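Teaching note: in complex prediction, the entire set of molecules is handled at once rather than each chain in isolation. The prompt given to students was simply: 'Predict the structure of this complex.' The entities are:
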Amino acid sequence: MIPAAFDYQRVDSVDAAVAALGEHGDEAKLLAGGHSLLPLMKLRLATPSVLIDLGRVQELSYVQDRGDHIAIGALTRHHVLHTSGLLATDAPLLAHAAGQVGDPQVRHRGTLGGSIAHGDPASDLPAVLLALRATLVARGPEGNRSIAVDDFFVGFLETALRPDEVLTEVQVPKVTGQGWSFQKMNRRAQDWAIVGVACVLSGTAAGIGLVNMASRPLRASATEAALAGGASLADAAQAAAEGAEASADLNASAEFREHLARVLVRRALEESAAGGRSAARV
Amino acid sequence: MEMTLTVNGTSHTADVEPRTLLVHHIREGIGLTGTNVGCDTTSCGACTVLLDGQSIKSCTVLAVQVDGQSVTTIEGLAGADGTMHPVQAAFREHHGLQCGYCTPGMVMAAVSLLAEQPNPDERAVREGIEGNLCRCTGYHNIVQAVLSAASAQEGGS
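The expected output is the structure of the full assembly:
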């Protein structure tokens, strides 16, 4: 399978990418690791006439300690997240989940920003960023702006990014004293999750992101509210599918997905409450 | 567009259409056909090569994306005198193949795994090759081969 023909432009800076987007508008797509976009292009489900390759933008690959949060460059690859000592200490949920994306080859190429900007509800890391209440930074012609993760995913493969903006950075608050868990139900190791759950828990304050339970990455708001109101973990987990719009496919009916959400959220809360996974198990 | 790729230590400059996938450039442009195309959907790992030392699926990378970088294919593992790479030797010793179609990708994935984890246990080996499918389901001997190569590398270092 060969993608439809396109013009290829390689840029060496974010500003050059923004300028190229301004020039080509909707006809252009940004290329990072390519592990979401290229499969779509090979199937001709995406046929951009211009590809702007960010692969050489060195300034966007980093994991930095910024005091109360960790800042991650959008082009940081999953393998780097998974093996980052900084993330293992201060955002272990993200380090662990990055090691569950796809398979080793995919993690050597795929990038955090690419996965987030693609906005696929079946991807693991958007749910992780929801759980962690991350902040996203985008750069456009007028400069940088910050976007709360809850405002970022607006529809199926649709985000709050404007056509001339580049996602440049992901900021995750440091977690201290929080339990965490990542639950992923799939048939084969490298498959997309049928349903996944990313969870952090500190007392009655929880952050829970759901994979594949709606047309966009979804927060389990009803479960979070139930916990905050004093519900037990098991009772709160019963609300996990409220507000969801699970789809049906060859792997699962909508009802089975709702069942999985309740079971996996309960397991995630219980593992988190038990102290969560230790950094050594990341 | 013109691009240069170092493959198994040899530099190749060619005029490549941007939509050309790396695996096709390797097979048809450079003429090294040891790298197989299997599923063509980033699943099976038959097209695995090393890009600057790390395993990737070359069906999901544009050739132009890796302009100026260095690729190792299955043809590049053996020594100049034909001495097999320790992972290749272990696959032969343990018969880590049946039909052989997945083998080049399996070997490249194993080389990348052992570079990152020189002493994996069996679980780590199985997880390390989870991006490679053997449709003969010959995983048992493949895992034995990778474990054996790990201990051979350990003994030799």
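Point out the following to students. The beta strands of chain B are 2-7, 10-15, 48-51, 54-57, 70-72. Chain B has two domains: 2-76, 86-156.
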